[in-house]
């Protein structure tokens, strides 16, 4: 009887999610991230337009239904990875056929490709320098900033712009196909990596591939993160299989799409030599992985002539100030406190300072996490890689919902069972309106203080735990001889 009720709940969840996806597709037509759309701005401005109320209602109800369906599948228990993937395809299909939703980055990708195709260096100038024929479709903040993406993705974007011959909707469709290919690669190697770690691949597929973030942000928004994540997971899997050269090459391709994948690269070395931790074995594995990385990235850099110029473009990724980044939120909250004492001029400086502290903490955390991962088994090393990616995501100057796919995918492959990743995923689905407006801008004060309170709480718990461990280790020395357990 239980099996019958479980199958019924799964069927309800599948069609509930499909209904949510159809409503979100309708929201995309009513007021998504369309070229020239007038639905840009705060919820109040959206509601003032003729179709705005219908768009927001479809977005809110559709997102809620997709989240509820996803949670219902997780609570019931997915019967197989194949069932999850089929369900995910059903949920994604309406969004794949609708206009872009929740982000205007696809237009930035198109214009950056056009800049490279036009003979300019996309790492030195922004799309306005060409000027890009679709400049008016981009967010204002990115029109004069160089590209922060790797040479492989810029070459892909340029090739698509050339093939499309000036037709923007063809560019959007082809960039979305690249995103779909990336998610497909993620699906293949997420399952393989999970099985290699002794983890239920059905549960892993549910957590990472069936959430609304995939359809709304990765597919509809055509984000390049999907391709980067797929290559990164493939690199980790081949490291588990002890193929260091191929693993390094895949990481070279992943970094040539987006730099974040490089955080997981040192853990590939540990996977190759596990459970060894001797310096000689680590050095040999590092050499092989690095050789594959340099070869793959070097070929792309030489073929495109772009090299590593994207490093200078990374500094522009933090021009937006949102409380979803932990250090940025702390800086914003301290700025509000400063205003109470009349120090309004310190607000921006506090954000910059908090971000600098966050990057310093991240550098220390990455080294510490890697050090603790030495000599562990495959599942543990993958888990530590997930923690490193999570630290890089949370401590970076800016966070967007689609950034969440990489850490959650690796967490899923490692069999992470805690509830908070599910909560974060569900909350991330509601962060951005259909036209791309981030609700973090309208909730800056409560959001930043909530994050600051969380940082204080976490710090207090960490110190309390360290104190408890210290007291526990000192306890045997305080026991009187007569109280000791007798030998034998």
From TrEMBL:
Belongs to the MptA/B family. The keyword Glycosyltransferase applies. Its main location: membrane. GO terms for cellular component: plasma membrane. It is found in: Membrane. InterPro entries: MptA/B-like. NCBIfam families: MptB. GO terms for molecular function: hexosyltransferase activity. The chain crosses the membrane at residues 12-31, 51-73, 80-98, 168-190, 202-220, 249-273, 285-311, 323-342, 348-369, 381-399, 405-433, 445-463. It is a multi-pass membrane protein. The keyword Cell membrane does not apply. It comes from the Bacteria. This is DUF2029 domain-containing protein. Pfam families: MptA_B_family (PF26314). Keywords: Glycosyltransferase, Membrane, Transferase, Transmembrane, Transmembrane helix.
């Amino acid at each position: 009887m239980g099996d019958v009720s479980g199958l019924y709940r799964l069927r309800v969840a599948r069609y509930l999610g499909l209904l949510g996806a159809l409503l979100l597709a309708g929201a995309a037509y009513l007021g998504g991230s369309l070229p020239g759309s007038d639905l840009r701005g705060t919820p109040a401005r959206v509601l003032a337009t003729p179709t705005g109320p219908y768009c927001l209602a479809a977005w809110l109800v559709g997102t809620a239904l997709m989240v509820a369906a996803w949670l219902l599948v997780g609570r019931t228990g997915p019967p197989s990875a194949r069932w999850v993937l089929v369900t995910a395809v059903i949920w994604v299909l309406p969004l794949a056929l609708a206009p872009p939703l929740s982000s205007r980055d696809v237009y930035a990708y198109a214009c950056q490709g056009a800049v490279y195709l036009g003979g300019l260096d996309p790492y030195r100038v922004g799309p306005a320098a060409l000027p890009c024929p679709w400049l008016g479709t981009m967010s204002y903040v990115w029109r004069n900033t160089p590209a922060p993406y790797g040479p492989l993705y810029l070459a892909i974007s340029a090739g698509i712009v050339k093939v499309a011959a000036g037709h923007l909707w063809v560019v959007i469709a082809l960039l979305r196909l690249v995103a779909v290919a990336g998610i497909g690669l993620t699906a293949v190697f997420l399952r393989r990596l999970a099985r290699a770690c002794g983890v239920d691949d059905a549960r892993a597929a549910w957590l990472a591939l069936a959430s609304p973030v995939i359809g709304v942000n990765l597919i509809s928004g055509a984000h390049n993160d999907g391709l980067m994540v797929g290559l990164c997971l493939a690199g980790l899997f081949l490291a588990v299989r002890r193929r260091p050269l191929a693993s390094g090459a895949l990481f070279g391709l992943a970094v040539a799409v987006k730099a974040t994948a490089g955080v997981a690269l040192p853990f590939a070395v540990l996977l190759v030599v596990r459970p060894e931790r001797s310096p000689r074995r680590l050095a040999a594995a590092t050499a092989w992985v690095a050789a594959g990385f340099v070869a793959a990235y070097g070929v792309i850099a030489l073929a495109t002539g772009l090299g590593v110029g994207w490093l200078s473009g990374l500094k522009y990724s933090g021009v937006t100030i949102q409380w979803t980044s932990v250090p940025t939120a702390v800086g914003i909250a301290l700025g509000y406190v400063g205003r109470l004492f009349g120090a309004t001029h310190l607000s921006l400086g506090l954000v910059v300072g908090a971000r600098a502290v966050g990057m310093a903490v991240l550098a220390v955390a990455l080294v510490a996490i890697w050090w603790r991962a030495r000599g562990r088994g495959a599942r543990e090393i993958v888990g530590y890689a997930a923690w490193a990616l999570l630290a890089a995501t949370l401590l970076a100057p800016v966070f967007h919902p689609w950034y969440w796919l990489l850490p959650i995918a690796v967490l899923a492959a490692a069999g992470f069972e805690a509830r908070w990743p599910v909560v974060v995923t569900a909350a991330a689905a509601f962060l951005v309106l259909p036209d791309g407006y981030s609700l973090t801008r309208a909730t800056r004060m409560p959001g930043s203080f909530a994050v600051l309170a969380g940082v204080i709480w976490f710090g207090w718990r960490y110190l309390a735990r360290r104190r408890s461990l210290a007291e526990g280790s000192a306890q045997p020395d305080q026991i009187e001889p007569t109280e000791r357990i007798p030998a034998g």
